[in-house]
Specification:
- With about 450 residues, this protein is an alpha+beta fold.
- Helix content is about 35%, strand content about 25%.
- The longest helix is centred in the middle third of the chain and has 17 residues.
Length: about 450
């Protein structure tokens, strides 16, 4: 264990490497789809009202890493593929004192450079040696705690990360850990379980050299000009939104359907956008493909659809619902995508781009993490009061939805160009985004402490 102290804020209390309680020794051959994600990481932050016990967190993480060992592994090259070696690795755990309240920390969580998560350097980790999981415990000035986690995306998706979190929580609370299945050859497994027929398309588009250069320039400029906006929708507000949308659509709609339709329509209207635009919505394919929730890996497909110019919120919501209901036949492109990537080979992976990532054409990505059990995680008898993504970059035309404060309502994080962010925060934007909110609606006490929350 290495301890270090500095005089400025945030103040480092302790830095350590947490090793699995038992070495697995497994070697996982990354699937062809995992290689596309080999230069990316994902980061998020859980907020707790009270302090967490560092020693219990470290001990519980050690036990969780023994159950989900890929998060403690290291990447190594294996021909034109990558392998995760689950031996001799470990995860990084840092503890800091931060001169910031929980409300102040929440207001900055999704912005780049906030220091609430130590983002895994994916390219360095890909080269070998660096940890695939980092944890930062920030002790806040009002007694709260921010628990920031970052992991290499080649290890797995959000479902995989939540298996680790549930195992960690169970270890600390002496509860029942989740069932976990590690696939040592994901491609072979998927060849057996994926439906033979799918959407009839792949999830990637192939770019020529000129298109790639143009896209790189557009993305770089867009990232520099983008801003993050946070919004909260209360339970009663969403219930009214859902009632009105279902009446207009003439069918049952989920909260996700109507929130997606409402947010996308509001953004297009505030952007004064009169073009047909596409919408991408990531989907955990496990349920649609008959894959057990215990399977670790990158098992995410996406719904991809085009909305007519000026589409009403209910019309977009109905499109989303139809796509979800028919996902396996019309949108499950996982097998076709893997076949395309295998045919191209890793040497040409730089020439492909997910169809949902199209900054020049303002394709909007709506990601929903509201049913992953984020608020079921318990440490020392405490559940999170809020969860937020933690971004290294502000990628425009993206959003993430999860349950709101204390698992009530919904918390939305949006990244859009700066001019549009200003409109969303302005009087007209607030009125449009919250047209289903009524004066009598009571907002959570913590919401009033978050700067710029709309």
């Amino acid at each position: 264990m290495l301890a270090c102290y500095v005089s400025s804020w945030p103040q480092l209390r302790e830095a350590r490497t947490v090793y699995p309680a038992r070495e697995s020794g497994a070697v996982v051959r990354c699937g062809v789809s995992d290689l596309i994600l080999a230069n990316t990481s994902a980061s998020l932050v859980f907020f707790f009202r009270q302090p967490l016990d560092d020693a219990k967190l470290a001990d519980g993480l050690s036990q969780a890493l023994a159950r989900v060992p890929v998060f403690a592994g290291r990447l190594r090259a294996a021909g034109d593929r990558l392998e995760i070696v689950c031996a001799g690795g470990g995860a990084q755990l840092m503890t800091y004192d931060v001169d910031e309240s929980i409300g102040e920390a929440i207001g900055r969580a999704a912005m780049p450079g906030t220091g609430l998560a130590d983002h895994v350097d994916a390219p360095r980790a890909r080269a070998g040696g660096d940890p695939l999981l980092t944890v930062r415990v920030s002790r806040l000035s009002d007694g709260g705690t921010a628990l920031g986690c970052s992991w290499h995306h080649a290890v797995g998706d959000m479902q995989s990360f939540m298996l680790l979190m549930r195992a960690w929580s169970a270890a600390v609370e002496q509860g029942e850990p989740p069932q976990v299945r590690i696939l040592e050859d994901p491609d072979a497994y998927l060849d057996q379980v994926l439906p033979a027929e799918g959407a009839g398309r792949t999830g990637f588009r192939l770019l020529d050299q000129q298109q790639q250069a143009s896209l790189d320039a557009d993305v770089e400029a867009a990232i520099r000009s983008s801003r993050t906006v946070q919004a909260y929708f209360g339970e009663a507000e969403v219930a009214r939104m859902r009632r009105d949308a279902e009446a207009a659509a003439g069918r049952r709609l989920s909260a996700n359907d109507v929130l997606c339709g409402h947010v996308v329509a509001a953004i297009r209207r505030l952007d004064e956008d009169t073009q047909a635009r596409s919408l991408a919505m990531p989907v955990n394919i496990r349920r649609h493909a008959g894959i057990a929730p215990s399977v670790v890996g990158n098992l995410v497909g996406e719904i991809f659809l085009t909305c007519a110019p000026g589409s009403a919120p209910a019309a977009i919501a109905a499109q989303v619902r139809a796509a979800v209901d028919d996902f396996a036949r019309s949108h499950l492109a996982f097998r076709a995508s893997r076949a395309q990537l295998a045919e191209l080979g890793p040497g040409r992976f730089g020439d492909v781009m997910p169809i949902g990532f199209d900054v020049p054409n303002r394709t909007f990505t709506f990601t929903n993490w509201s049913r992953f059990g984020l608020y079921d995680i318990t440490f020392g008898g405490q559940r999170p009061v809020l969860f937020s993504p933690a971004a290294r970059l502000q990628v425009p035309w993206t959003s993430l939805l999860t349950e709101g404060f204390g698992q009530a309502g919904y918390f939305l994080t949006i990244s859009v160009p700066g001019r549009l962010a200003a409109r969303l925060r302005g009087q007209d934007g607030r009125a449009l985004l919250h047209r289903h909110r009524e004066p009598a609606d009571v907002l959570p006490e913590l919401a009033g402490q978050v700067r710029k929350l709309i």
